[in-house]
Each structure stands twice: as C-alpha cells, then as structure tokens.
Amino acid sequence: MRYRCRRTISRPRWALAATLAVGLGLVAGCSSEPAPKPTVPPPSPPAADQPAPETPPAPQAQVPPGPVRTADTLAAFLGAGFKPAEKGNWGLERSQVVADPSAPGGRLLRVSFPKGSASPQAARKSHGPEGGTQVYAHFPQSGDALTLTYNVRFQPGFQFVKGGKLPGLFGGSAGSGGEHKDDGFSTRFMWRTNGAGEVYAYLPGTKGDNGYGDSLGRGSWTFQPGKWTKITQRVQLNTPGQKNGSVTVWLDGKQVFQKADLDYRSSGGLHIDGVFFSTFFGGSDVSWASPVNQTIDFAGFTVGNTAP
C-alpha cells in the first residue's frame, strides 16, 4: 500500500516500517511544551499526488542495556532514523533498557513511577515528585495513514489509581496538558481505574473532557498487570474539510475499538510525524499519583503503513 508523505530531513529516504527490539517510555500528557521538529532544514514538500517510493526497511537500531541518558537514545529504541524533538522531552533518568529473554525482541524499556509521583503539572502544583518519561520521536518520513504497535507490561499488582498516559502517534505541534493546537494532534493511549483502556486524543478545534483531551472508547479493553499486552493503533487522517479521519485499536491482534468521523486537520500540510512516547500518572493533580514505587515495561515497537 502506498501512502502520501513528505520528507522531513534531507537524507536518503527510509521506509516507515521500523522495528524496535525494545519499547520506550515517555510521558507527555501534562507537559505544555510543544513538539518542534528537528532543526534540519526540510526540502520542499512533494506534490500532493506524489506517492511514497518503495524502499528497503531501515536497519534496526542497536541500543545496549543500561540507563537511557539522552533523548536520541530513547528515540533510537523506537526505530533507526527516528529523531527526538529539541523540546518537550523529560524524565530520561527514570528509564532504562533491560535485557530480558521474555520480552519481545529480547529487550525492554522500563519506566519508573516513584511513590507520590504524577505528571509534571501535578508536581509543580504540589512540589511533589515527577514520574514517567516523555519523548517526541520524529519519523524519517511523515505519513497520512500509519499503524503503531508495541507491547506493554504493567508490573504484577500494578495499582492503576485514576489513570495515566501511554504512547501514541502525533502530528504537527501535537497537543497535551490542556493546550489544544490548531496545527497539531495526538492520539496517546490511557489506562484508567482498574486498567480500563482508551484513546486519549487532542484534536484541533476541540476542548475535550474538562478542557483536556477527548476520551475515546473508554473501557473497550482492559490492561492486565503482570503480562505482556500487544497494543496497536492505526490513524487515518481526514481529507481537509471533511470529518472522515479515523482511529482503530487492536489488542493482541483483535480489533476492540474504532471511531471513524474524526477531524485531525484543516490543511493537507499536516501529517502524522512521529511517536509521542508519553507515560505518567495523571491527570493534573496529586489525586492521580502513584501510591507506591511502580514500573511499566515497553518492548517491540513497530510503525508501518498497513493495518495489522
């Protein structure tokens, strides 16, 4: 399947399918930082009817076990050629790569959530600890219909409290932390009380729940602590001027949710640009905070242009 795209860096083109031996954890929902593109001057965009070329898959990045010290390292876990934004990345000190034969690909990214921690917004209000990790990881090429898959494992006995964020796709200036952008969108996952799952979307022109994101499909699936869960989202952008965009979710290969009347963009210049690796408890106040020290593992990230 071909898809429309534009190049975002002046390098040889890479395929969008990039498999990651280890997942990565980032947190972003309550960060108000935008997601700027890397500062490499982009070439002029191709004509609107120019399809993506057929190119060989990008080589998998090889990242050794150990602490994640830079956003570049975290982005490399998502796939070769992925580049982090210059702003909006935080919490790297709470993530590490672990060699684990039980993980898809043999390695995982473990993200820590200290006792009492929630989002950066909640931490600023309460002067309490932050938890989780966040990175905006840009693809070598953007697209208009892309599928993100990864594996997630909540530690045994995980206490979900009121909820928290998990990675999803984003485009343009994204949107999070109550800041809605006319030139961006994001489709992170969330867990809710007792592990209920949903898509937590920031879309142009909407204010969502209490001025924050839109809760889509809450309770359509449930995350189970102590086991690997394979989660997939496919985003199809709308035709500008029409509400015909969609998001579809699969859990362990089974479709569990779809919404097909979404308006992601008003301009053909807005595309799906990367993975919004965002994970933390919250919520904008400490009522969402983790009651104990906890961890979530991520592994086996893939991004492609076809449905599973």
Overview of the molecule:
This protein is mainly beta. It has one domain: Jelly Rolls, CATH 2.60.120. It contains two helices and 15 strands. It has helices spanning 71-78, 120-126, and strands at 66-67, 83-84, 95-99, 107-113, 133-143, 145-154, 163-172, 184-192, 197-202, 214-216, 229-236, 245-251, 254-262, 272-281, 294-304. The two termini are 13 Å apart. The model is unreliable at 1-34 and 38-60 (pLDDT under 50).
- Placed side by side, the strands forming the largest sheet appear as 1-3-4-15-6-11-12-13
* CATH architecture grouping: Sandwich
* CATH class call: Mainly Beta
Roughly what fraction of the amino acids lie in strands?
A: 35-45%
Largest sheet: 8 strands, antiparallel
Total strands: the figure is 15
Features of the shown structure:
308 residues, 15 strands, Jelly Rolls, 7-stranded antiparallel beta sheet, globular, 8-stranded antiparallel beta sheet
